[in-house]
Amino acid sequence: MSRTDTSLSVQRFPFRAMGSACEVVLASSSDKDAQRLAQMAISEVIRIERKYSRYTADSVVSHVNQQAGVAPVACDDETWALLQYAAKLHEQSGGMFDITSGVLRQAWNFQLAVLPAKEKITAVLAKVGWHKVQLQNQSVFLPDIGMEIDLGGFGKEYAADRAAQVLQAQGVKSGHVNLAGDMRFLGPKPTGEPWMIGIQDPRHSSQVIATLPMMQGGLATSGDYERYFELDGQRYCHVINPLTGWPVTYWRSVSVTAPATVVAGCTSTMAMLMEEKGLAFLQATGFDFLAMDYTGKVHMRQ
Known about the structure:
Elements: E1 9-17, E2 20-28, H1 31-52, H2 60-66, E3 73-74, H3 77-92, H4 118-125, E4 134-136, E5 139-141, H5 155-169, E6 175-179, E7 182-187, E8 195-201, E9 204-214, E10 217-223, E11 228-231, E12 234-237, E13 251-258, H6 261-274, H7 278-285, E14 289-293, E15 298-301
Antiparallel strand pairs: 1-2, 2-6, 3-5, 4-5, 6-7, 7-10, 8-9, 10-13, 11-12, 13-14, 14-15
């Protein structure tokens, strides 16, 4: 594609998946072709949602969780690769990124401004621990009844990358996939200009704290403003430390750009979980980032 290609027009295809508003944006010279391409990308997102959602009774994740304490579950190549990636993230984060920690939602209800009893947190924490998960012979076994895995920590980001790969295989070189703010860019606008993406102010949903120019790669944001409650002046959000069972409090939001959306998303989540140590972690990754701490101060590298 030349730097300026006036034969292409940008088209947007909104849809809902993973409980969120999503969108495929691509440049094409034909409305019919654009619709066909967008549907291919959307179908890939839906495939991944159905395969790995914990809300779907016959998903791979639900099957693994149903067999906790009972029997190992054989994995196909895709699932095995995702579990190996989860193991790598757990190791890299010092145990902070743990896909068995989703059970902590049993202790926290963010629709009610009520702290759970410490005994409840302790009881649920007993079900958390990636180190207990047995991966061998391309099968996974959760040894304790009540243990669960949840790929929500990077499932949406993985789906964005896969949808983009589907489009790339079809020759799309301009556009992006946006799954509720987790984005993968295929290339610049047909004019050669970058896509300008606003980063939401975590305390004012109608405002942005910065606008980032994106050409290629992934962008993802983790924050304390999607699911939370406030009690006695303290905000309790859905990002929960898997070692303590308590929500993190240091960062309001962390946005990261990386070659892939799944890398950007896991990096932003790990920074959130590491709290005050997250800034040094972000600096060490070499990725561009924009983060706002609990005081409202913005930290960035671009």
